[in-house]
Write a structure and sequence with these properties.
binds NADPH dihydro-nicotinamide-adenine-dinucleotide phosphate, two-stranded parallel ribbon, globular, 45% helix
Length: 249
């Protein structure tokens, strides 16, 4: 039970096959109270109900600062504290560099980067008051290698921004015993990627992955558990690669 009675907020966590949902399930298995935030409040509530009575689902668009502040306030009102935040919500658009229109740039950076900023700003006052907290930011291998299969350059830029933001937050919040770390997943089989891989493309991708398989949402969830829990009590400002060895060179 690595998260006994810890109150854990996870954004974008209602999607059935998603990384956030898998993380919520694992946190609940480890005794945590999972607070599932997502655009669709009904789906978030269903996802939380599936985990049991101790968990909650709340509608929250992370690009809306007031919605983030309200969601955090609701959690504190009911549970008294917030111990963990996983900034997971994100969207991709497979566009080429010259095809990126302002609306594409805004949509992608809004969810990943602005969302990480707003949701973190919403929970930090509570974590500071408690003098403890762990924030995990989901970035992407696309930030590190410049582009991916499903995300365009604007996605790489947004996810690279998340890495910088997380490190800056780690510096500033360390004295309050609030840790901030990032996870950079490789190619993970979720709704973002699922069904879009032809056998030929899959075989080509596997040539570049030493572990010779795509990742599962649970692979990423286990890394989030490590960073959320006291197992990583002296880790802050770090980036944990969860990519099957894709970046070994
Ligand atoms: P999913 O699409 O399965 O889950 C993302 C969730 O975020 C969805 O439920 C989505 O809701 C929700 N969401 C979208 N916009 C917002 C918003 N404004 N506010 C709140 N929630 C929102 O994706 P994954 O599980 O694959 O991805 C999770 C994270 O991991 C993302 O940040 C992604 O960029 C990152 N990642 C994923 C990789 C992969 O291979 N799958 C690789 C590297 C990183 P809705 O469905 O209604 O849009």
């Amino acid at each position: 039970m690595l998260l006994s009675n810890k109150v854990c907020v996870i954004t974008g966590a209602a999607s059935q096959r998603g990384i956030g949902r898998a993380t919520a399930r694992l946190f609940a298995l480890h005794g945590g109270r999972a607070i599932i935030l997502d655009l669709d409040g009904g789906q978030a509530a269903e996802a939380a109900a599936e985990l049991g009575e101790a968990h909650r689902g709340i509608a929250c668009d992370v690009t809306d600062k007031a919605a983030c502040v309200n969601a955090a306030a609701r959690v504190v009102e009911e549970f008294g504290r917030i111990d963990v935040l996983v900034n997971n919500a994100g969207i991709t658009q497979p566009l080429k560099f010259m095809d990126i229109e302002p609306k594409n740039y805004e949509a992608v950076t809004d969810v990943s980067l602005r969302g990480t900023l707003y949701m973190s700003q919403a929970v930090v006052p509570h974590m500071r008051a408690q003098k403890s907290g762990s924030i995990v930011c989901i970035s992407s291998v696309s930030a590190q290698r410049g582009g991916g299969i499903f995300g365009g350059p604007h996605y790489s830029a947004a996810k690279a921004g998340v890495l910088g933001l997380a490190k800056a937050m780690a510096r500033e919040l360390g004295p309050d015993n609030v840790r901030v770390n990032s996870v950079t997943p490789g190619l993970i089989q979720t709704d973002i990627t699922g069904g879009k891989l032809t056998p030929e493309l899959r075989a080509e991708i596997l040539k570049g992955i030493p572990l010779n398989r795509l990742g599962d949402a649970e692979d990423v969830a286990r890394s989030c558990l490590f960073l959320a829990s006291e197992l990583s009590s002296y880790v802050t400002g770090a980036t944990l690669d969860v990519n099957g060895g894709m970046l070994i060179h």
